[in-house]
Amino acid sequence: MTASANDFPTTSRMEYVLECMKKHDGKYEYMYKCSCAIDEIANQTKFDEYVEISTALRNETLGGQRGAEFRDPAMIKTMASKYKKIQDNAADACFIN
Known about the structure:
The protein is mostly helical and 97 residues long. It has one domain (10-93). Helices cover 69% and strands 0% of the residues. Helix 1 crosses helix 2 (29-44), helix 2 (29-44) crosses helix 5 and helix 3 (47-59) packs across helix 5. The longest helix is centred in the C-terminal third of the chain and has 20 residues, at 74-93.
């Protein structure tokens, strides 16, 4: 049995759901909404790309010299913007406000 191209590992899905729930005060209802969101994200991107673009968004605000490699390159900004759009679409589809 082969995995589909957008099949995300369970641990990555759980990490997303837990981070998403934390952003919404840990409310139980967000377990379902955030699970829906990562499913939507998985439908829009392959896992390898997800890792790259989510890392770009997560680290684009790092300060100091080491953060410059995530802050400054145009390619990183494009990747972060792409993930933000995917994330926003998933939030809309899953009723995350």
